[in-house]
């Protein structure tokens, strides 16, 4: 099915903006629903943020990467996934600015969030390794994809384990905000909560398909590389749920959920690449990556590493060294991407 020729440049622009608006509006409602589910089930905000909110808000990006890969555009598929990780990590700093009290990473101290940062670094490293090894595929799928899926699933199990049975705990200070269930949520109907969650997830996923179509058309009509379109356009549009849900969670006082939704969602975003490899028919998607794509992978690792350091250091006031570091690294990375060969 040819998607790239189905939209003119003006139509692609309009579709892109409309889909981004739908993603942003629907995303505002997800934070409240997931917070209620976390309280009702007792699984905790860090796990709910990583699995439920992270997975649901990541659906638009997943659709974009799969559709792009099916059309043979490996750079757009991977650039969209990894660019989303970069911008979503930066959104934590935006949420920190919206909180305007103590440092968000300090207040939302959670071993689960720290572990998710480490898991994400491991998954990004696996993709870099995949881009460096020979093109080996079984039924068109690279063994690296199986490794990515296994590590994500095993890592998710470990996140829940370290939350339930921590070997150490962050120091509780006057700025720390504990994850305490809302009594009203624990008595509400779980079936109704899950139904609302499913409807919202389907809505953002459908909007993601429109972003995919418009993104492919932008590559076709403008001649700009898939890496640039994925990093600048589709990744930001499909990441809007993470921005609005994190700000909504912060304003509702669910600070661990705000950080966990982004950090855990970023780990889920790496599965976009696994799904893209399955959809990409010419061979392993990893070996089709350009030098610009590998740069974006390293850039995302740097951003996640800075954030992880901030979660451990836990400065008390302002956005901290990690906030400044993430903002500067993100902006400089965008500048570098546009200057790389083939951009």
Number of separate strands: 0
Helicity, as a percent range: over 70%
Please provide the ordered H/E string of secondary-structure elements. Answer: HHHHHHHHHHHHH
Q: What is the name of the CATH architecture?
A: Up-down Bundle
What is the C-level CATH assignment?
A: Mainly Alpha
The CATH H-level superfamily is: NCX, central ion-binding region
Profile the largest sheet. Answer: none
Number of helices: 13
Low-confidence stretches: 1-5
Structural class: mainly alpha
The gyration radius over C-alpha positions equals 19 Å
And the CATH topology?
A: A middle domain of Talin 1
Q: Give the CA-based shape.
A: globular
- The number of domains is 1
Q: State the end-to-end distance.
A: 26 Å
Strand portion? under 5%
- Overall mean pLDDT score? 77
Question: Can you walk me through this structure?
Answer:
Helix content is 77%, strand content 0%. With 343 residues, the protein is mainly alpha-helical. It has one domain (9-339): A middle domain of Talin 1 (Up-down Bundle), CATH 1.20.1420.30. Helix 3 crosses helix 9 (226-238). It starts with 8 loop residues before the first helix and ends with a helix. The relative contact order is 0.25.
Please render the helix and strand layout as text:
Layout: H1 9-41, H2 45-70, H3 74-99, H4 104-107, H5 111-132, H6 143-164, H7 183-186, H8 190-222, H9 226-238, H10 240-251, H11 255-279, H12 291-313, H13 320-339
């Amino acid at each position: 099915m040819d998607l790239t020729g189905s939209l003119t440049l003006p139509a692609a622009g309009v579709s892109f903006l409309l889909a981004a608006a739908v993603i942003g509006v629907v995303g505002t409602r997800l934070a409240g629903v997931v917070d209620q589910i976390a309280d009702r089930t007792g699984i905790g905000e860090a796990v709910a943020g990583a699995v439920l909110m992270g997975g649901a808000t990541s659906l638009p990006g997943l659709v974009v990467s799969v559709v792009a890969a099916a059309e043979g555009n490996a750079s757009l598929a991977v650039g969209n996934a990894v660019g989303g990780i970069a911008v979503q990590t930066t959104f934590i700093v935006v949420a920190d600015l919206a909180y305007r009290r103590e440092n968000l990473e300090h207040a939302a101290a959670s071993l689960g969030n720290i572990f998710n940062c480490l898991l994400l670094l491991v998954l990004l490293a696996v993709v870099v390794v995949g881009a460096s090894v020979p093109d080996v595929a079984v039924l068109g799928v690279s063994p690296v994809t199986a490794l990515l899926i296994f590590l994500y699933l095993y890592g998710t199990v470990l996140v829940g384990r370290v939350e339930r049975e921590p070997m150490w705990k962050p120091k509780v200070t006057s700025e720390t905000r504990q994850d305490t269930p809302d009594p009203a949520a624990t008595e509400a109907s779980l079936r109704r909560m899950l139904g609302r969650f499913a409807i919202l997830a389907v809505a953002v996923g459908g909007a993601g398909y429109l972003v995919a179509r418009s993104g492919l058309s932008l590559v076709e009509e403008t001649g700009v590389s898939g890496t640039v379109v994925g990093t600048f356009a589709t990744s930001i549009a499909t990441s809007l749920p993470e921005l609005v849900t994190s700000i909504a969670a912060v304003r509702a006082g669910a600070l661990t959920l705000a950080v966990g939704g982004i950090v855990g969602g970023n780990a889920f975003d790496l599965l976009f690449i696994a799904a893209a490899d399955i959809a990409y028919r010419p061979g392993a998607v990893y070996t089709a990556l350009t030098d610009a794509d590998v740069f974006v992978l390293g850039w995302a690792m740097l951003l996640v590493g800075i954030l992880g350091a901030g979660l451990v250091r836990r400065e008390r006031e302002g956005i901290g060294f990690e906030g400044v570091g993430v903002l500067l690294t993100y902006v400089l990375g965008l500048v570098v991407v546009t200057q790389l060969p083939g951009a």
